[in-house]
């Protein structure tokens, strides 16, 4: 039995949270190894993969589904989402320190703060989506 899907928005928010979690681990590892000689920091990219999940309606030859009631959801052409993947890369740029490490703790702390806020936002949005689904199931207005 496969995973239950609650729609593209929920899947995308779930993947955004997972990507932010991976980024948080990489940033925390960079900070933990700030005094390790010759340590090279790691970057995690996931927002490009997240953007690939968004449906694109580029084909102007497709006809949109016609709706006759504002409560109906308009349909679009079928879109096959790309699989989500997080990419880790080793940053081997010039070291900033005498010991050969290229970790700048101030930059890492700023990235940690930004990523933390991003993760909290995605979590809040996902919670809101689940609340909406719950209300739809219970038929609350």
Walkthrough of the structure:
- This protein is mainly alpha-helical and 141 residues long.
- It has one domain.
- Helices cover 46% and strands 6% of the residues.
- It contains three helices and two strands; from the N terminus they run αβαβα.
- It has a two-stranded antiparallel ribbon.
- Helix 1 packs antiparallel against helix 3.
- The radius of gyration is 21 Å and the shape is elongated.
- The two termini are 32 Å apart.
- The model has no long low-confidence stretch (mean pLDDT 81).
List keywords for this structure.
mainly alpha; elongated
What kind of sheet is the major sheet? 2 strands, antiparallel
Number of strands: 2
Question: H/E series, N to C?
Answer: HEHEH
Proportion in helices:
40-55%
Q: Which class best fits the helix and strand makeup?
A: mainly alpha
Distance between the termini: 32 Å
Strand percent estimate? 5-15%
Shape: elongated
Count up the helices.
Answer: 3
* Mean residue pLDDT: 81
How many domain regions? 1
Oligomer: single chain
